[in-house]
Amino acid sequence: MLEIALGSALIYYAATQAFDLKEQHPETVRYTETLDSRNNSFTRMHREPVQIKPALEDQFRGIVRQAYDYSCGSAALTTLLNGYVGTQLNEQQTMSGLLRYGEYDRIIERRSFSLLDMKRFVAALGMESGGYRGEFSDLVKQGQPAIVPISYAGFKHFVVYKAYKNGRVYVADPALGNISFDEERFKDVWENNTLFLINVAPQHRQNMLALHEKDLRHVEDATVNRYAFVDIQYPQFAMEKIADKASTIRLERNVNKDSDNYGQYEHRFLRLYYKNK
Which positions fall inside the Peptidase C39 domain (predicted)? Predict the structure, then answer.
């Protein structure tokens, strides 16, 4: 009886270790790799959990994504309030506040929110704010995030200015996520040099909109424009030459009856392809 109990325990232990029944993070992906195909047992399979994160999460890190094509203003204001002031609003709550305290009739007519609507809603939350005109240097000197209107791709749009570094302007875009502009390009799209600031005591400021290392990864506008509508033609002849140099040469008889060199011996390249496990 003892032998049966011990055997059952060993089988259970082997099964749980082999199939990895431990609780895993919901974003965990498990892959199986054969370590030694000659060993026909559970131990030949190596299982390793790897956590993955959708790129979209980092793209919109710290940003409230706009739910409608006309709601960039409410999404940008929610992003600024949550990331800098420390509120915990969703876009629908901000939209309701803007409709209640803003110019309701004009909002409905133009299907968008204005900086004045934002100022009134922020005042209802008990904070001071305002829209200003200034130079690019003024925007940078503020040292704090601000809502800025831009005219981009034929549309007027609200984004949140985050920071300026090494000739690039980093913004939180409710539609596109964390993006950046070349300084000159930003100056071109910045509407009327206008910015909207919220006054927050230093001890209460949040840093969710602070510049992150991942924000520094960008592709130059010129690179995007150069390759956006171009069908890339790969230089096959160059690849052939590289492959030939990496191959071995073997003397073989030509067995192609349609070839002019049928029956003759020719040097042929034997290319070797390596599979990583």
Answer: 66-197
Q: Which residue has the tokens 């005219």?
A: 151
The span from the CA of 252 to the CA of 263, in Å, is 10
Report pLDDT digits (tens) over 124-167.
999 999 999 999 999 999 999 999 999 977 789 999 999 999 99
**Looking at beta carbons, which pairs linking 99-102 to residues 24 or more positions away fall under 8 Å?**
100/124
Residues sharing a CB contact under 8 Å with residue 38, sequence separation 6 or more, in sequence order? none
- Whether 68 has a pLDDT exceeding 70, the answer reads yes
Residue 77 near residue 57, CB atoms below 8 Å = no
Token reading at 90: 């969703």
Q: Phi and psi at residue 9, in whole multiples of 5°?
A: -65, -40
39-49 tens-digit pLDDT: 555 454 555 56
User: What pTM, to 2 d.p., does this model score?
Assistant: 0.63
Q: Helical H runs in 111-232?
A: 115-124, 136-142, 183-189, 221-228
Burial-class residue 212 by CB neighbours within 10 Å (0-12, 13-18, 19+): middle
In the chain, what is the greatest distance between 2 CA atoms, to the nearest angstrom?
A: 92
